[in-house]
Amino acid sequence: FPLGLGSAPLISVEGHQDGGIRVVCRSGGWYPEPEVLWKDLNGRHLPSLSQTTSPGDNNLFETEIVIIVTEHSNQNLSCCIRNTVLHQEKESAVYIADPFFPSVNSWMVALSVILVVLFGFIGLAVYLFKMKGKLTEEV
């Protein structure tokens, strides 16, 4: 088989998952099976959620790697795919801006607290009303 340096990694943002954003990197046309990883701006390896590599057309390898990016993790990241025999790599980068991350609105928190307090008062009122009824029956 001739050695193959595949296509540039294609990064796609595929929606919200597990409190963060699911980001997928795909590439094809590699031989032999490439090394695939996510890196931060400083070149440090980032843990991926999943990775699959399989032979595609013409027995060249296709690969996909997934990461979940959270607001407090690395929002600047790159997908790096390496041909370990040719010692060459292709890399694509992405930045996920703050507005894409799900946020909790302060009014939702306030409403939740008010509802909990309200149901607490209702429960207390029902309990006291029943206790008053029992005391009235005993007298």
How would you sum up this structure, described in words?
This protein folds into two domains: about 10-100, Immunoglobulins (Immunoglobulin-like, Sandwich); about 105-139. The strands form two sheets. The protein has a four-stranded antiparallel sheet with strand order 1-2-6-5, with no helix packed on it. The protein has one helix at about 105-139; strands at about 10-15, 20-30, 35-40, 45, 50-55, 60-70, 75-85, 90-95. The chain has about 140 residues and is α+β, with helices and mostly antiparallel strands. The longest helix has about 35 residues, at about 105-139. The protein starts with 9 loop residues before the first strand and ends with a helix.
TL;DR of this structure?
The chain is an alpha+beta fold.
Defining traits:
IgSF_BTN/MOG, signaling receptor binding, alpha+beta, 139 residues, rod-shaped, 4-stranded antiparallel beta sheet, 2 domains, Immunoglobulin-like, Ig-like_fold, transmembrane
List the helices and strands and how they pair.
Elements: E1 10-17, E2 20-30, E3 35-40, E4 45-46, E5 50-55, E6 61-69, E7 76-83, E8 88-95, H1 106-138
Antiparallel strand pairs: 1-2, 2-6, 3-4, 3-7, 5-6, 7-8
Instruction: Work out the helicity level.
Output: 10-25%
For the largest beta sheet, what order do the strands appear in spatially?
1-2-6-5
Task: State the CATH topology of the largest domain.
Answer: Immunoglobulin-like
Number of domains: 2
Q: How many helices does DSSP assign?
A: 1
Protein name: Butyrophilin subfamily 2 member A1
GO molecular function, one term: signaling receptor binding
Keywords: Immunoglobulin domain, Membrane, Transmembrane, Transmembrane helix
InterPro entries: BTN3A2-like_Ig-C, Ig-like_dom_sf, Ig-like_fold, IgSF_BTN/MOG
